[in-house]
Amino acid sequence: MLNLVLFGPPGAGKGTQSEKLIAKYQLIHVSTGDLFRGHIKNQTTLGQKVSQLIADGELVPDSITIAMLEEEVDKNPDATGFIFDGFPRTVTQAEELDKFLVGKGSLITGVIALDVDQDELTRRIAERYKVRGRPDDDAEKLKKRIEEYFSKTIHVLPYYEEQGKLSKVDGIGEIETIFENLIAVIDQY
Ligand code: ADP
Q1: Contact present, 9 and 63 (Cβ < 8 Å)
Q2: Would you tell me which of 125, 162, 178, 184 could form a disulfide with 11, CB atoms 3.0–4.6 Å apart?
Q3: 0.85 exceeded by pTM
Q4: What is the Cα gyration radius of the chain?
Q5: What distance in angstroms lies between residue 137's CA and the mean position of ligand 1's atoms?
């Protein structure tokens, strides 16, 4: 199994690169942000529970997020691998993901962090807000998301670094060049 975590702050390009990687490596894309947005759109019980938190740029509680993720993985018993995009966002989520995969005789192959500076992130999200109008891309909500990233999510990096699983790829430049740099890392696993 090839199980990748694509890591990075909001606007780093995780979604864009995940789409390209799943096509190349036949992986299942598990984006917790997309899953939550699907629940909100379909007005499920879970969607109703999380919509305000997400609109405010806050993280959804670990228990809810982990349960949703595990359910999604279990829906794909024949998968040859997964890309986790937007998950884990806390150390608890990272620990639970490891336990869950070990229980299935599997593990995380590697974690790739897309490196993008703050100015570029802000610029990209302002652009995305104009085009797609995602409510949590509004400047004030984005500020909260970036705060959540630096207070909680960033600690996931040393967790994987200690396991020798972390690689960094420059997330600035042509989409195609970034993709090639990701492939270079993955093909060494
Ligand atoms: P980004 O542009 O930051 O990559 P996502 O689409 O991944 O945004 O996530 C949107 C929102 O969904 C987050 O701001 C958060 O409220 C919620 N969310 C997504 N993944 C997680 C997670 N792993 N843990 C908690 N909340 C999450």
Answers
A1: no
A2: 125
A3: yes
A4: 16
A5: 11
CATH number of the domain residue 141 falls in: 3.40.50.300
Q: pLDDT by residue for the chain (189 residues), tens digit each?
A: 999 999 999 999 999 999 999 999 999 999 999 999 999 999 999 999 999 999 999 999 999 999 999 999 999 999 999 999 999 999 999 999 999 999 999 999 999 999 999 999 999 999 999 999 999 999 999 999 999 999 999 999 999 999 999 999 999 999 999 999 999 999 999
Residue 83 domain boundaries? 2-180
Distance CA(22)–CA(20), nearest Å, equals: 6
91 CA from centroid of ligand 1 (Å): 15
Number of Cβ within a 10 Å radius of residue 30: 23
Q: Is residue 188 part of a domain?
A: no
In this structure, the residue with its CA closest to atom 9 of ligand 1 is: 33
> Does 137 map to a domain?
yes
Indicate if 132 belongs to the active site: no
Indicate if ligand 1 lies below 6 Å from the C-beta of 32: yes
| Residue 124 near ligand 1, beta carbon < 6 Å | no
Which residue in the list 20, 134, 144, 165 is annotated as catalytic? 134
**189 lies in some domain:** no
Nearest-angstrom CA–CA distance, 104 and 119: 41
